[in-house]
Amino acid sequence: MTIAATSSSFSHDQPACTGVLLANLGTPDAPTPAALRRYLAEFLWDPRVVELPRWLWWPILHGIVLRLRPARSARKYRLIWTPDGSPLLAIGRRQAAAVAAKLAEDSPGPVRVALGMRYGNPSIAAALAELRQAGVQRLLVLPLYPQYSATTVASTFDAIAAELRTWRWLPELRLVTHYHDDPGYIDALAASIRAARAEQPGERLLLSFHGLPKRNLLAGDPYYCQCHKTARLVAERLGLPANDWAIAFQSRFGRATWLQPYTSALLADWAKAGVKRVDIACPGFPADCLETLEEIAMENRHVFLANGGEQYRYIPALNDTPAHIAMLVDLIRRHAAGWPEFDPGYDAAADAAERIASRERARALGATT
What is the span of the domain harbouring residue 219? Predict the structure, then answer.
């Protein structure tokens, strides 16, 4: 591995700024088997995602999974694909633009925002390159995963570290590892759910989170506990009795035991027990994607109605709603506290004057830039 030759573009009067990297899981470039094969090959080869010995997992992945799953996944993606492309990417771009606009409006100094996907495009490497080009000397990473898991947040850090290994001048780095119990996040979730259920609420509310193999919990991953805390705080904020809501886990893959109860199984049980109306929200997904729009809004709707249910309402993710953007910006400000660009005393004119003076001092010592 070589260090990127960036020193030649360095200037002693180069403006410095803070960069914010919004990171999410990723999406295929198109709803086609070929695009899904590329995406899944990257995603499922990550040792943070599938914790099997590489010699064992490689023939399974390439001999079975990547032969069968891409076509099936492509059909699902086609059901939710939009004129703007993948919903996750389209929403992510709107989120990044809205966060950037709000920070530009309210921050004393310059702040740049970039969107990077752990798998697929735009990659984390591309987003970091964009921020480096903007002169970022301080970097705040906000993975859009409210609940921490090694499969998501730690994997994002791995990708960032791999890219930064090629940089000669590293930025000061801060990483938001979770915000599962952040009051602004809980308030935004509760307000969204309350508004959706304002008229004829379902008999029960189901809060569905992405599942993980149970062995991850036993190995010390705090994800399961953080999901439960998020759900409990949302239910408390809504004033729901214990029997009126539940938590479940979706998106199982493979034969291993995953976190339970399973979303589809619980919905079927409720319908068979006589529950006719349910509302379902996914507090672990800050943006709608395949797992919410197809798996929850379509597949699980069929499960509930096929087993005797009558009314099924999916409550959309927070996406780029004003409350969500305000919460994310507040989170960024708190984690970036102490950096010059967020200091109320930041003086742009003084900063520019000091950069000019720095250049002159450097030239007096023999520098050429």
Answer: 183-314
